Amino acid sequence: MGEFFQTYFDFSIMGDNFNAVLEGFWWTIKLSLIGGAFALAWGLILSVIRQLPGKALAPVRWLAIAYIDCLRGIPMLLTLLLIYGGLGTLQSTGTIPEWLGIPEFFGWPSSFWYGVMALTLTYGAYMAEVYRAGIESIPRGQMEAARSLGMSHGQAMRFVIVPQAIRRVIPPLLNDYIALMKDTSLVSVISLAEVVHVGQDVYSTTFNPSALTLGAIMFLIVTLPLARLVDWQIKRQDEKFQRGLA
Amino acid sequence: MSDETVSLSEDVARGETILKVSNLKKSYGKLEVLRDIDLDIKKGEVICVLGPSGSGKSTMLRCLNLLESPTGGTIELKGDIVFDGTKPKNLDDLRRETGMVFQSFNLFPNMSAKENVSIAQVRVRGRKKADADKRSIEQLTKVGLAEKVDEYPDRLSGGQQQRVAIARALAMDPEVMLFDEVTSALDPELVKGVLDVMRELADSGMTMICVTHEIGFAKEVADRVIFMDGGYIVEQGPPKDVLDAPREERTKKFLGLVLDH
Q1: CB-CB: which of A141, A148, A244 is closest to B65?
Q2: Mind giving me the DSSP string for chain A?
Q3: Inter-CA distances, B83 with A229, B6, B66, B72, B80, Å
Q4: Residue B91 touches chain A, beta carbons under 8 Å
Q5: Which residues contact A191 (CB under 8 A, 6 or more apart)?
Q6: Which of A147, A148, A151 is closest, CB to CB, to B123?
Q7: What is the pLDDT of residues A113-163, one digit of tens each?
Q8: Does B119 touch chain A if contact means CB atoms closer than 8 Å?
Q9: Secondary structure of residue B54 in the 3-state scheme
Q10: What is the mean pLDDT of chain A?
Q11: CA-to-CA distance for A193 and A113, rounded, in angstroms?
């Protein structure tokens, strides 16, 4: 038992590397905040495209559906490696501009921005489905009532449908956000010094995983309250639903 | 959009045609729901539409304000075409002049009774929030809900919700009110309160088209009863003719089934 504890919870290693791990976790937070924000916006755009009305726009809808299905069907690690392996090359041959090929906004490394791209592309697809489910969960009668009162489709969406849908999509969006946050660790494979990468560096010199344990604890400090928040939100909605309100 | 620009054309006098439906057709794929409906609705008239389920009566009502798009025929509102056989024209005018009440109430669950009645006044009619709220309270008082203006729909009974829905439609000052089986989802003891409101509305001269199973209400309030079956208007006329002395076999059979239980 003592050996187990020594292996995973070596406090001297944790203490020595605390600042480095925390710095790595800061990249994790930045990745999840920026990638998450882009994914939220991109997902909304995709879901709107997917629900554009009319026959003429059918090809655009199909494109959106194909995109959503494909990106949900590819492991994010693979998407990330494809971005990382391709953009630099395309930039060097002049096919795409340098800011896209080797992005270094704010002086942050391009591996960070490749990570943001992969998170946005992948989680945008997931979140698009969440938005769609939220809007489709509002009974048809709500749109009909709004239209019969003379509101346009846009007004009905804005004043009647979306305000009701938002409450319903918050818990599943938060769930996706937790998953997104954990998947930021994949960006370690293209050598961004985020928390997992730092932990592994420490491991390779000390042959002790305690720095990784420290990283896990940092994740939990953020994800556990989020998970509770999701549960609380769902419970609140169930109560409302039972009263016929949600 | 303000109150001054509401009317598409001159107001029609009582007894003149307000809605004119010609050769109205509606099908879903191969299924023909409305085959050939001709109907003149006069201002101030109260029409009750009866018929077995699947006869097309609700679909007809929903075509009148173009919640369903007909597949053929024309609809005129006060002499102006609002549906020309293929697509809607002046849809906003039509929707503004027709109020609709649904079987399932369809109140907005995230708004209080007052907000339910106010929102379209503000967003569609362009009324000021304070004016709209004042109007909403008046309208809710008229349907007997003065004490409930700040309640949310989940705190109201079905009958109360339906009366809010009626108030919500009336606050838009429609020319015609469409009622789609508005008492069918209600517990029996709550039906009367809603029918009383509709009766009063009819007495006040509102033009009304009611799809209903309430034969007693039709007998008492309707100026004209329409019996539909299989997507056609089978028979129409004053209630004493259609309900007490129907000419068509199908009407007789239906009324026999409805009244015998």
Answers
A1: A148
A2: -HHHHHHH--HHHHHHHHHHHHHHHHHHHHHHHHHHHHHHHHHHHHHHHHT--SSTTHHHHHHHHHHHHHHHHS-HHHHHHHHHHHHHHHHHTTSS-HHHHS--GGG--HHHHHHHHHHHHHHHHHHHHHHHHHHHTS-HHHHHHHHHTT--HHHHIIIIIHHHHHHHHHHHHHHHHHHHHHHGGGGGGGT---HHHHHHHHHHHHS-THHHHHHHHHHHHHHHHHHHHHHHHHHHHHHHHHTT--
A3: 51, 19, 8, 9, 9
A4: no
A5: A111, A197
A6: A151
A7: 999 999 999 999 999 999 999 988 999 999 999 999 999 888 898 899 988
A8: yes
A9: coil
A10: 88
A11: 13
Among B185, B183, B184, B142, smallest CA distance to B164 is for B142
Burial of B155 (0-12, 13-18, 19+ CB in 10 A): middle
If residue B200 lies in a helix (H) or strand (E), which one and from where to where? helix B188-203
B141: its two tokens: 């008082």
> Nearest 5°: phi and psi at A78?
-70, -45
Are the beta carbons of B140 and B164 closer than 8 angstroms?
yes
Provide the ipTM: 0.89
B125: nearest CA partner in chain A: A150
The CATH code that applies to domain A26-206 is 1.10.3720.10
Residue B100, chain A, CB below 8 Å: the answer is yes
Polymer length of chain B: 261
């008046």: which residue's tokens?
A: B138
Q: Is B161 helix (H, G, I), strand (E, B) or coil?
A: helix
Tokens of B226: 């329409």
Nearest residue of A to residue B92 by CA position? Answer: A150
Handedness of CA B162, B163, B168, B172 (dihedral sign): positive
pTM exceeds 0.80, yes or no:
no
pLDDT score for A21: 86
